């Protein structure tokens, strides 16, 4: 628990130091020193706002995906994308109720499918246990799908590999106990009337040092992929869940071009000022919608996250993404 709270403890120390610095500068006789008080005061505002109103906000980002590849029976199909809940980092103490509110918000959207795209926990599966009721109450016509993110492998705990392995299994078992379907380098079909869509999900694949456990050979086993178009044969509308957006161009597209890929991981740095965020220098696709330049119009939707490594957001609200499929004629 200390490791989970450590970022907040550091911020608290910075907060106290900022108050002291601002107080001393305001009392200084020199005008230029009084002006310098503006900097710790701005920092104070960012910290206080980020831990209160900034983190309380939860926005719904709506996306309409139009394509003639969408089967008739799936016209209007609603997919809710949720990533990076980070229960241990975000929803402790006074923030507990925000998770319940978010679950109620998701259910109110009346989704056809809910996709939990990794990093449900921050360190250990014990973080999930207090929220079993909330997670189990998520409802969608075709259920809840989930894949593993880098934090779900318990690799930030300092535990031995053998102990990590046991905790990872607990993570998998807990998520399945919520009534969710975990995709572990596999695929299946969702059927509506005589139509269907192909859903694939793989384990985390990111730039090192992040885990590279995504196994496309295993995920695509039994499928025939057209080598020219990188699409399934016969042609099938395809949805792919993969936590890290770096996997899209470097790992997925060379082998298969899903119509829609869902990712998270970046959090949008949980910080932005006037649209600028430092995460843009680390990830090409860090938040929002991205399309490739082929006729298939492959979409990558990167969510900036439902929670965070700590309950702080400034200029980068928590979000739920709703993707509605619209068939073009």
Any key phrases for this structure?
single chain; 329 residues; alpha/beta; six-stranded mixed β-sheet; 30% helix; globular
How would you explain this protein's 3D organization?
- This protein is an alpha/beta fold.
- It has a six-stranded mixed sheet with strand order 1-14-2-3-4-5, with helices on one face. The protein has a six-stranded mixed sheet with strand order 6-7-10-11-13-12, with no helix packed on it. Strands 8-9 form a two-stranded antiparallel ribbon.
- It is built from ten helices and 14 strands.
- The mean pLDDT is 91.
- A hairpin with a 6-residue loop joins strand 8 (224-225) and strand 9.
Summarize this, please?
With 329 residues, the chain is an alpha/beta fold. Helices cover 30% and strands 21% of the residues.
Secondary-structure map with pairings?
Blueprint: H1 2-27, H2 31-36, H3 38-51, H4 53-56, E1 58-67, E2 78-82, H5 87-90, H6 96-108, E3 113-117, H7 132-136, E4 144-147, H8 161-177, E5 181-182, E6 186-192, E7 195-201, H9 216-219, E8 224-225, E9 232-233, E10 238-241, H10 246-252, E11 260-263, E12 288-291, E13 299-302, E14 318-327
Helix pairs in contact: 1-3
